[in-house]
Specification:
It is a single chain. By secondary structure, the protein is of the alpha/beta class. It is built from 9 helices and 13 strands. The strands form 3 sheets. An 8-stranded mixed beta sheet has the order 3-2-1-4-10-6-11-13, with helices on both faces. Strands 8-7-9 form a 3-stranded antiparallel beta sheet. It has a two-stranded antiparallel ribbon with strand order 5-12. The protein is globular. The N and C termini lie far apart (about 70 Å).
């Protein structure tokens, strides 16, 4: 082999080695860039999540509105909803709740179910009317109405409201608060299925195998959590069509209403029975952060589950069948989640 050929071959080997090293360097550099981009993306997502969490946490109790700017704010009553709020001698809680919900978009009116023996104090009415006027948005004045009842009964929360302008009713207790953005999302879910109940507090039932196929057990939250199924949405926080107020008033068996008045319990189960009996469909559970601002309720009392099971079996006997339909469906606002 000549010296020229040796030089050429050596040069070729050097070029190949150089090319290989350059490729290795390029691959390493590209991998490093990709890794840096991925890390930057993760950091950005974390910062956005923390910023959103801080924004929510910094909101005061009287101004939990969340990010609702992108939601439809139709001026038509059919694109709005009415709040029907049950209350009983808890004026401070009533003030806090009304002060919060009065600022929610697409709210048409607030109906306070008043069943106390004395009429609402003038000072309370003045305060609430002032708060509603102060928090009303975009030139739309939210209407505040006290629905006065002469009888103290839990059935009053489902009495027909003759002058109700909206189809949608948001039934809520005075000691429960949700972000306005969460309420708006639940309202849009209800609009997609206006014949069913849509809400935040699921419950379930199952057959009591120790007593036969026609006997049932009421299941609370932990039963729902464990099984992943539910068949009721409690009216302490639920949307439903106003026609069910008329149906409850006119068609609910008198024996069931009397049972509810006498035991001061289970009107929410009765409404679930009524809606399921009319539709043959399950309710829809909406995921939402709940803030309970009152003291512990009757659900914490001893024997609560047993009493609720008695209600379920009483209503099954009156309806002549079990109308409740179980489901595992859950509506989640994916805009607030990283993965869904």
């Amino acid at each position: 082999m000549s010296n020229r050929e040796k030089v050429m071959r050596g040069s070729l080997v050097v070029n190949r080695r150089t090319d290989f090293k350059l490729r290795q360097f390029g691959i390493a550099t590209l991998g490093s860039v990709k890794l840096k981009i991925l890390l930057c993306g993760c950091i950005l997502l974390i910062l956005l999540a923390v910023g959103n969490r801080n924004r929510e946490c910094s909101s005061s109790l009287l101004g939990w509105t969340g990010d609702v700017a992108s939601l439809d704010r139709s001026s038509s009553p059919r694109g709005r909803y009415a709040i029907v709020m049950n209350t009983w001698k808890r004026y401070d809680l009533l003030k806090k709740s009304i002060s919060h919900y009065a600022s929610c978009p697409r709210l048409e009116s607030i109906h306070i179910i008043w069943s106390e023996p004395d009429p609402p104090p003038d000072s309370l009415k003045r305060f609430l009317n002032h708060i509603v006027q102060l928090n009303s948005r975009n030139g739309h004045q939210v209407e505040l109405i006290f629905d006065i009842n002469t009888e103290d009964s839990l059935n009053n929360r489902f009495k027909e409201i003759k002058d109700l302008k909206t189809d949608a009713v948001f039934s809520i207790d005075d000691d429960v608060i949700f972000h306005c953005s969460s309420v708006e999302f639940a309202f849009t879910v209800w609009q997609s299925a206006p014949d069913t109940m849509v809400g935040y507090v699921p419950r379930m039932h199952w057959v009591d195998e120790t007593k036969g196929k026609d006997k049932y057990i009421y299941g609370g939250w932990w039963s729902v959590w464990w099984t992943g199924t539910y068949s009721m949405i409690l009216s302490k926080a639920a949307f439903f069509h106003k026609k069910y107020l008329k149906l409850y008033t006119d068609e609910m068996p008198t024996s069931i209403k009397e049972y509810i008045t006498r035991n001061r319990n289970c009107e929410d189960i009765a409404m679930s029975f009524l809606v399921a009996n009319a539709t043959g469909a399950p309710p829809i559970w909406v995921k939402g952060k709940i803030f309970e601002i009152g003291s512990t309720g009757i659900s914490s009392l001893g024997g609560h589950g047993k009493k609720r099971s008695q209600c379920v079996n009483k209503f099954v006997a009156e309806f002549g069948r079990m109308p409740l339909v179980s489901t595992s469906l859950k509506a989640v606002d994916s805009r607030n989640l990283w993965f869904w």
